[in-house]
Amino acid sequence: MRVVVAFKEPGHAWVLMLGPHDERNRTYDVYTSLWEVCGLDAPPVGERTKPACCDDGGADPNLPETDDLVTRCRDLAKPPRRRKRPS
Length: 87
Hints:
alpha+beta
């Protein structure tokens, strides 16, 4: 099980995704969903690295892309809307 987290501001983290990491089953692989949300068709080539959890002063990283990433993850998690049938 993996947890994908983004930091909005110091002391405030968003849990973006929670799911299995299974490269054999891309339908359920949490990283496949993450690449999709980031606009990538395929995962980056090469070894993946984790960003530092804190800056040099010990504060959470603050990336301007976080708000957009949170919105995309929320949209991905929403069930599709049903169309109303004409009466």
